[in-house]
Design brief:
The chain is an alpha/beta fold. It contains 15 helices and 15 strands. 37% of the residues lie in helices and 20% in strands. The longest helix has 24 residues, at 160-183. The structure holds zinc ion (ZN). Zinc ion binds next to loops. The site of zinc ion (ZN) has 6 residues, from loops.
Length: 410
């Protein structure tokens, strides 16, 4: 591998769109030069790009569940509704259908689903993922596809004896898991599922086990979660009761106070969804510095409404995007999330959304030197040949099917 250079008619550099920009990458794919005049690099081999091509840094899908991919296209989709008018049981119905059908997907089907997901992620130009796993089965297929990122080993349950046993196993296996993941380009952390499906002692212990690592939790995804946490009632509490979990020690305090008491507002736990979070809650989250990961198409699929993007942006929390699992989305293309948010919130600058899908996601996952075009960064870029346009970021959203070709050595 040698140095390579290209001149991009359009370049999204990780924060903004630029025109007619020269880029030089070293043999490891790190940016040596980005700017107008690359004359001193004339001897470096040049990759020719089609006229009108848009170059982007590799995409970051900050929240997905690759291991659920076999169930893509098999689950019912919610009717479109509003945050206020939503059916509180929508999430529980979707999750119930997912879990009930899971045994009908055998080991081969699950493996084929994982492989298909990894290949799809690469085709979309994804270079980093935040992948949630219960089976810890996804690293080999992601590594084979050249994807890196965070593996979030998810734990849930309320049974103290069972949780003690699984946390003891995780603690014992963690040094080996971390080393295995690191060798494949991944960072490993055990994480809780949600504050209402994981007992508080376990959440605190998982955060301690993860140490300095970036963690994650699904939080304030739907109204039934809030009602369970804040009042010990509603559809989620009733669902857990129907599973035999009666008299759970519900915190009965504001959800964000509870998250803070559990040590989750630590600036390094990704708060995923926040679909029903209010402005005051988002402000506290932003003050703590926790990255927010929105999964808008999954919210539409499962709940029928979108997160309040303007409120998230007004609060100023670091923003990343994820597709969530293929079982609650049309595809694993994080630009599909950009498109959904852009369509619903046309006043939000597209550059803000593309940043969340690239460098914002990389920073949230703890890889700040990826997915942007500063000197020294490793963008792992791709190019898309667009039809003639003066607004390439918008045009790409209407042409997501166009081929995305990796550029330079990765
Ligand atoms: Zn999820």
């Amino acid at each position: 591998m040698t140095m390579q250079r290209f001149r991009a008619p359009f370049l999204f550099d990780g924060t903004r769109l630029r025109q007619d920009v020269a880029v030089v990458l070293d043999a490891e794919g790190r940016v040596v030069f980005v700017g107008d005049d690359s004359q001193r690099f004339e001897s470096v081999p040049e990759i020719a790009l089609p006229p009108g091509a848009l170059v982007l840094p590799g995409l970051v899908n900050a929240h997905t569940h690759v291991e659920l991919s076999a169930q893509a296209g098999t689950l019912p989709r919610a009717l479109q509704t509003t945050r206020e008018g939503a059916d509180e049981s929508a999430f529980l119905r979707w999750a119930g259908a997912l879990v009930a059908a899971r045994p009908s997907f055998d080991a081969d089907a699950r493996a084929a689903g994982r492989t298909a997901a990894a290949q799809a992620l690469v085709r979309f130009g994804t270079v980093l993922v935040g992948d949630v796993t219960n089976e810890a089965s996804t690293v080999p297929c992601l590594q084979a596809a050249g994807i890196e990122g965070c593996i979030f080993h998810e734990v849930f349950g309320w049974n103290a004896t069972r949780l003690d046993a699984s946390l003891a196993t995780i603690a014992a296996e963690m040094p080996e898991k971390k080393a295995e993941c690191a060798a494949a380009g991944f960072r490993y952390a055990p994480v809780p599922h949600t504050p209402y499906t994981t007992a508080p002692e376990a959440i605190a212990r998982l955060r301690a086990l993860a140490g300095d690592s970036i963690g994650a939790i699904h939080f304030l995804e739907h109204a039934a979660e809030r009602r369970a946490l804040e009042g010990g009632e509603g559809a989620a509490a009733a669902w857990l009761e129907s599973l035999g979990l009666t008299d759970l020690p519900w915190p009965k305090q504001p959800a964000v106070d509870y998250a803070a008491a559990l040590g989750l507002l630590d600036g390094k736990t990704l708060l995923v969804h926040l679909t029903v979070a209010r402005s005051d809650e988002l402000s506290r989250i932003a003050a703590a510095g926790n990255p927010v990961v929105l999964c808008p198409r999954s919210n539409l699929f499962i709940l029928g409404f979108l997160p309040d993007l303007p409120a998230v942006l007004a609060a100023g929390a670091p923003l990343a995007l994820g597709t969530d699992s293929w079982a609650s989305n049309d595809d694993l293309d994080v630009l599909g999330e950009v498109a959904a948010l852009a369509a619903a919130y046309p006043a939000v600058p597209l550059e803000t959304l593309y940043t969340a899908a690239t460098w914002g996601g990389a920073r949230a996952l703890g890889f700040p030197d990826r997915s942007h075009f500063s000197v020294g960064a490793r963008p792992r870029p791709f190019a898309v040949p667009l039809p003639p346009t003066t607004d390439p970021l918008r045009t790409l959203l209407a042409h997501r099917h166009l081929p995305r070709s990796p550029l330079g050595s990765s």
